[in-house]
Amino acid sequence: MQNKKIIAVCGNIASGKSTVCKRIREKGFVVIDLDEITHQIYEQGTDLYYKLIDEFGEGILDENSNIDRKKLSNIVFNSKTLLKKLEELTHTDIILRVVKRIKNEKSDLIFLEISMYLESKKLIDKYIDVDEDWVVVADRNIRIQRIMDRNNFDYDTAVTRINSQLDYEKKISEFDEVIVNNTTEADLLQKVDKLIDRKKL
What we know:
Blueprint (H helix, E strand, L loop, with lengths): L4 E7 L5 H10 L3 E4 H8 L5 H10 L12 H8 L3 H25 L4 E6 L2 H11 L4 E6 L2 H12 L3 H9 L13 E4 L4 H15 L2
Parallel strand pairs: 1-3, 1-4, 2-3, 4-5
Pfam families: CoaE
Keywords: ATP-binding, Coenzyme A biosynthesis, Cytoplasm, Kinase, Nucleotide-binding, Transferase
GO molecular function: ATP binding; dephospho-CoA kinase activity
């Protein structure tokens, strides 16, 4: 794994991180999506599945006894204490699975798509040598509107989701590259293409 270049791509909810990572995939690069791995560890029969039920109750299950991530989100995003508890239960398992994926990938360059990068950075640094970190940012009001449009949330719910996360726009000095996404998707994709070209990846 030490011989592989690792680039973390992160951003707050509705910043455009997923669109950026989709473009990176389209350019032929390997992108490991940590949210996808999170889905896997929530599956029935895993240790985490039972730990989450013990911690948050059977109200987080759907009619097929699967963990309903929307129900779980509605619980934890209204309480920083519960959100922190969820992170404690899940983050190490997720990172260890990422390490395994990195080792199994043949590519010498791997991107990590990760939502809560700064919040997990100490844990990530313990297991993964990240060479660069890129952040996608957008103005707060723009992100609120995107959440309302995309998820059909009301204003207060959208604000609650945003307030549950560390504001990366205030932390841009901690990143190697900053991608600003306040206009159109076409403009965002052009910025990604130019960044990849500039980096000679």
